[in-house]
Structure formats: C-alpha cells, structure tokens
Amino acid sequence: MSNTLHALSDHWRNRYLLMRHGHSQANEQGMIVSSPERGIENFGLSELGEQQLAQRVADWQWSTPTRVVHSDFLRTTQTAARVAAAFQLTPRVDTRLRERHFGELEGQGDDRYPSIWALDAQNSEHQRHQVEAVSAVAKRMRAVIDDWEQQVSGETILLVSHGDPLQILLTVLANKPLTQHRDQLALVPASVTQIGG
C-alpha cells in the first residue's frame, strides 16, 4: 500500500518515508502492546509480517532510502532491519518514534482503541486511562523530522514507527487539528507514505 503526501511548502530539505512496522505478533493476538517494558524485547513480527516485508522490499516503489531510523520496539526494529539490509544501510534507533503509550489499556484487547480515539476526537490533550496525549505524541514525532531537517539535506530518510504515531504525525504535517488524526485513511502494517522531496 502506498500513500503520498505532497510537500506542503518548499521548505523540505529531505525526503521522508514513513513506514508502519509489518504485521506483528501483537496484531495477530489482537493485543495492545505499547509499553517499552513489553514491546522492546517481545511481540516482534508475525509470519505474515515477515512475508509482507519480503514483498515490500522486492517490490520497492519509493525513493531509495539513504538512512533508516526506527522505534526501539521489536516489531519496528525487525522491520527496519529487513529494509536496511536490502539497501546496505545500518539502521539507528530513535526512541521518539515509539508506539503511543496506552497506559491502563496495556495488554488488553485492541478493541479498546476506538474508545480512546473517540476521546482523542474531543480533546488532543486528554490522558484518560493514563494514555499518552495526542499532543505529546505529535510533539515528539514532529521533533524527529525537525532535527533531521536541521542536520542534513538531500537525504531520503526512512522512519519506521507505529500506526497511531504516524497518523498523528501526518495530521500535524497536513496542518489539521490533532483531534482529526483518525479521520484519514488508516495506515496498514508495512505501508509506506512518502513526504517531502
């Protein structure tokens, strides 16, 4: 699956490929795994996820990445490693790309997501159930791009992260209210969205 968000201005110094990790064991089990304590060493890619990535790399249709940066969760680390290997790159970790923390819902069924998204649509600052606020996710995700924009130019940087953080980032980049982050097309596992450049 491919999504393209055209540069919103001429200020981009780099091109970014935003990639959601491949289908994971957490997806397979229908479970929320958002805490570093559980997500860094466990719940990596499922067999389907491995197949998705093999296909994604074989059929790569985006710009060739010059850097690969990823969340330190196992599912994103494994995704980044597969893509980086294909382009002879060394992936690096940025913890700001981590999954949104879902607080008290950790380990529960992923059928709990819609109740949080409904609250998000009312208030991007809410922290009900000790969930990380949309505004906080937006700030850390945007900071990743801002930092790369200051450090380098002319690069194609693959950022491997998670569904909610990436949708929130895309909402920020589109200058839309954060309360609308679930209004756009959901990012499926192993999808790539190109921005800038």
UniProtKB/TrEMBL annotation:
<protein>
    <submittedName>
        <fullName>Probable phosphoglycerate mutase</fullName>
    </submittedName>
</protein>
<dbReference type="InterPro" id="IPR013078">
    <property type="entry name" value="His_Pase_superF_clade-1"/>
</dbReference>
<dbReference type="Pfam" id="PF00300">
    <property type="entry name" value="His_Phos_1"/>
</dbReference>
<dbReference type="InterPro" id="IPR029033">
    <property type="entry name" value="His_PPase_superfam"/>
</dbReference>
